[in-house]
């Protein structure tokens, strides 16, 4: 191998080591490396894109990170839908309070009454 090729390879290895060291320092300075906000998630995704472009990451890692981010966003969507449901129920009954949905919690979805026929009869009486 020529000296020029060796120099190029050495420079490339040094560049990758510096990038890796910088990422590790960033992770240590921020605790887990990501503030658990939408802005923190975006920053991590953009950092991964930069790493991918620089050759410090690989497509499989980037895809895994994207899938994890998608899962986190889906959980936010579920929580938003739950909050809308609870808000709607509380408007009608005044009994429900807004809060976080804990996994495994049984939530009755659908109408406010157990028997939809009774609800229809009540509406017919009010209209008459």
Describe this structure in words.
With 128 residues, the protein is mainly alpha-helical. It has one domain. The chain has four helices and no strands. The longest helix is centred in the middle third of the chain and has 35 residues. It is rod-shaped, with a radius of gyration of 27 Å.
Chain-averaged pLDDT: 75
Query: How many domain modules?
Result: 1
Query: How many helices does DSSP assign?
Result: 4
Distance between the termini: 96 Å
In which range does the helix fraction lie? over 70%
Overall, the morphology is rod-shaped
How big is the Rg? 27 Å
- Indicate the structural class: mainly alpha
What is the makeup of the main sheet? none
Strand-residue proportion = under 5%
Based on DSSP secondary structure assignment, what is the total number of beta strands? 0
Order of helices and strands: HHHH
Pick out its properties:
single chain; 128 residues; mainly alpha; 4 helices; 71% helix; rod-shaped
SSE inventory with pairings:
Layout: H1 3-29, H2 38-54, H3 59-93, H4 116-127
Give a nutshell description of this structure:
Helix 2 runs antiparallel to helix 3. The protein has four helices and no strands.
């Amino acid at each position: 191998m020529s000296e020029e090729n060796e120099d190029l390879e050495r420079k490339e290895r040094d560049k990758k080591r510096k990038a890796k060291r910088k990422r590790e320092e960033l992770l240590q300075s921020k605790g887990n490396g990501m503030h658990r906000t939408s802005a923190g998630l975006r920053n991590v995704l953009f950092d991964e894109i930069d790493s991918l472009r620089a050759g410090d990451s690989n497509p499989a890692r980037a895809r895994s990170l994207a899938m994890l981010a998608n899962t986190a966003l889906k959980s936010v969507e579920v929580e938003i839908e739950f909050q809308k449901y609870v808000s709607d129920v509380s408007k009608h009954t005044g009994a429900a309070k807004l809060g976080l949905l804990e996994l495994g919690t049984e939530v009755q979805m659908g109408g406010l009454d157990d028997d939809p026929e009774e609800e229809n009869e009540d509406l017919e009486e009010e209209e008459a």
